[in-house]
Amino acid sequence: MAPQINPSILSADFARLAEEAQAVEGADWLHVDVMDNHFVPNLTLGVPVVESLARATHTPLDCHLMIEDPDRWAPQYVEAGAGSVTFHAEAAAAPVRLAREIRAKGARASMALKPATPVEPYEDLLAELDMLLIMTVEPGFGGQAFLDIMLPKIRRTRELISKHGLELWLQVDGGVSASTIERCAEAGADVFVAGSAVYGADDPAEAVRSLRAQAAAKTASSAWACGH
């Protein structure tokens, strides 16, 4: 799969969300961070804003739920128009059941892991997912520095995906920029959430194209991709 770039509206101007979404319409997905001020110490937006965004852009929405009780709330984001819904392993009571419900409603099901959460205990349920998100910062705030110590975890996850022959996307989120995206791609990521690196650029659409080109070039020469 070609690398995908998902600009994060957490770094956009919240007073101009429709315009900010349209400014990156060449992106693969629009990453929407939902925070409840309980699972993470920040409060962002919810279902009504997702519904409005879905009407305002042709770019599919990739909703990342940093919330408690996703088993209850995640299906509502599919109904609101999200094409992909990510819940946190640390918050879900029944991740397999939840992933199946998200898929049954017509969206891609994704699970996220915080930096301190290992991937190995979840090996057996990876087949139930369409994407796994490896957080490369602590969730809750944009603009944080990339955690290099997550690179071995990305590699181990890619090895598990290959081991089981899965068509599972591997997303990274946190501190992804022109200076870090190649390391992520080399380690095995193929979906990249970029906030400040896109919306902090003079030309967000060009930033998306440039990041995608960087990731594609590095992926092409990476051992994990060459082995496919």
From TrEMBL:
Pathway: Carbohydrate degradation
One Pfam family per UniProt: Ribul_P_3_epim
EC number(s) recorded for this UniProt protein: 5.1.3.1
Gene that specifies this protein: rpe
Binding site for a divalent metal cation: H31, D33, H64, D173
Cofactor binding notes: Binds 1 divalent metal cation per subunit.
Reaction(s) the record says it catalyses: D-ribulose 5-phosphate = D-xylulose 5-phosphate
Family: Belongs to the ribulose-phosphate 3-epimerase family.
InterPro entries: Aldolase_TIM, Ribul_P_3_epim, Ribul_P_3_epim-like, RibuloseP-bd_barrel
Keyword Metal-binding: yes
Keywords noted in UniProt: Carbohydrate metabolism, Isomerase, Metal-binding
Name assigned to this protein: Ribulose-phosphate 3-epimerase
Active-site residues from the entry: D33 (proton acceptor), D173 (proton donor)
Cofactor(s) required, per the database record: Fe(2+); a divalent metal cation; Zn(2+); Co(2+)
Free-text function comment from the UniProt entry: Catalyzes the reversible epimerization of D-ribulose 5-phosphate to D-xylulose 5-phosphate.
Residues reported to bind substrate: S8, H64, G140, F141, G142, G143, D173, G174, G175, G195, S196
